[in-house]
């Protein structure tokens, strides 16, 4: 507002204000670039949360997000789900399954929390109790590893 007032005065004939107007304008443009860079970085981090935590964010993370960021996350989640359903045939293709290429199809895991029954593709039901160890298909338990229920034993 002060810059606009000085512009009006400069048009009226006060040429000594031109340098001050230019300086303020450059400061405003710099601040705008910094804010846009911060918002873009935050958007990239929120997008990465979908790949790291899945479609449901923990409350501790969601607490630190604004309403607009939560809304953007939900729209991104829906868009990604629609895309994954559209590729890979009838059931779709879960792109979040193997973030890193697997070295083996089965891995040994230790249960960190009581989770309950867990069914794998062949119909076998496994009881996941705290401190129990299992040899499971990687793709089936990767989400539970990210959620902190299972721990990959190396």
From TrEMBL:
<feature type="domain" description="GINS subunit">
    <location>
        <begin position="16"/>
        <end position="87"/>
    </location>
</feature>
<dbReference type="InterPro" id="IPR056783">
    <property type="entry name" value="PSF1_C"/>
</dbReference>
<comment type="function">
    <text>Required for correct functioning of the GINS complex, a complex that plays an essential role in the initiation of DNA replication, and progression of DNA replication forks. GINS complex seems to bind preferentially to single-stranded DNA.</text>
</comment>
<dbReference type="InterPro" id="IPR021151">
    <property type="entry name" value="GINS_A"/>
</dbReference>
<comment type="similarity">
    <text>Belongs to the GINS1/PSF1 family.</text>
</comment>
<feature type="domain" description="DNA replication complex GINS protein PSF1 C-terminal">
    <location>
        <begin position="103"/>
        <end position="153"/>
    </location>
</feature>
<keyword id="KW-0235">DNA replication</keyword>
<dbReference type="InterPro" id="IPR005339">
    <property type="entry name" value="GINS_Psf1"/>
</dbReference>
<dbReference type="GO" id="GO:1902983">
    <property type="term" value="P:DNA strand elongation involved in mitotic DNA replication"/>
</dbReference>
<dbReference type="Pfam" id="PF24997">
    <property type="entry name" value="PSF1_C"/>
</dbReference>
<comment type="subunit">
    <text>Component of the GINS complex.</text>
</comment>
<protein>
    <recommendedName>
        <fullName>DNA replication complex GINS protein PSF1</fullName>
    </recommendedName>
</protein>
<dbReference type="InterPro" id="IPR036224">
    <property type="entry name" value="GINS_bundle-like_dom_sf"/>
</dbReference>
<keyword id="KW-0539">Nucleus</keyword>
<dbReference type="Pfam" id="PF05916">
    <property type="entry name" value="Sld5"/>
</dbReference>
<dbReference type="GO" id="GO:0000811">
    <property type="term" value="C:GINS complex"/>
</dbReference>
């Amino acid at each position: 507002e002060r810059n606009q007032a000085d512009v009006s005065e400069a048009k009226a004939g006060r040429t000594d204000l031109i340098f001050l107007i230019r300086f303020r304008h450059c400061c405003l443009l710099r601040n705008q670039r910094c804010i846009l860079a911060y918002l873009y970085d935050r958007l990239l981090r929120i997008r990465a949360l979908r790949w790291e935590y899945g479609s449901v964010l923990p409350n501790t993370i969601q607490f630190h997000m604004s309403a607009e960021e939560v809304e953007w996350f939900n729209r991104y989640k829906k868009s990604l789900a629609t895309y994954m359903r559209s590729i890979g045939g009838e059931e779709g293709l879960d792109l979040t399954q193997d973030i890193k290429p697997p070295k083996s199809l089965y891995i040994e895991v230790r249960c960190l929390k009581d989770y309950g029954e867990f069914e794998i593709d062949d119909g076998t039901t496994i009881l996941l109790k705290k401190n129990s160890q299992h040899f499971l298909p990687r793709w089936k338990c990767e989400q539970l590893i990210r959620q902190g229920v299972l721990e990959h034993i190396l």
